[in-house]
Amino acid sequence: MHHIDVRIEKDIYDVNRRIAESNAHHLKAHGVRAFDLLGAIGSGKTALIEKVVPLLKQRGLQAGAIAGDVFGDDDYQRIRALGIPAVNANTGKECHLDAHLVEHSLEDLDLESIDILFIENVGNMVCPTDFLLGAEKRVVIVSSTEGDDVVNKHPMMFRGCDIGIINKIDLAPLVGADLDRMENDMRRYHPGMGIFRTNLKTGEGIPAFLDALLK
Predict the structure, then answer these.
(1) Average pLDDT over residues 131-155
(2) CA 1 – CA 89 distance, rounded (Å)
(3) What is the pLDDT of residue 2?
(4) What is the pTM of this model?
């Protein structure tokens, strides 16, 4: 029985990977650069989009977004308020987006009008790790309020992402979080990772992050 479970799991990942590759080709054909945003609920994924979109506009780049949630449209409504094309992708009960759901979401976007696409995953630090979606880079965002052991508890997430953000740095002293520990843990699991410390209320750290993202 155990062997059957493993084989089914491998099949699911293989199918997902193939669709993700197809998504990547589709996006590239339309000149769209796509980025996955991963992180826990409340880490700052939607707030990051809110801060970055105006900066992209200043550079003459039009953003779009897919808002992934298990249920509801709270994040989608915040993104729509930015005046950019967006799709709400509800997973029902799955704790992550998959490439198939993203494939359908892309059908609902006018890709010709979009330069940069953000795919905001479901708020979870475990489930999304193995499901690639077809994006160029993956960004993981954690906040000081999650505790400075949050990175150490989720090594696979950081090994699988290109950029790490430590958010809510202003709150670190209030919750007793050691930002250096968080950054050192990130470097231990992914030595080449670009790491940025941000305060999304003030926008601190965002321009440097955006430069690295678009590089």
Answers:
(1) 98
(2) 34
(3) 60
(4) 0.96
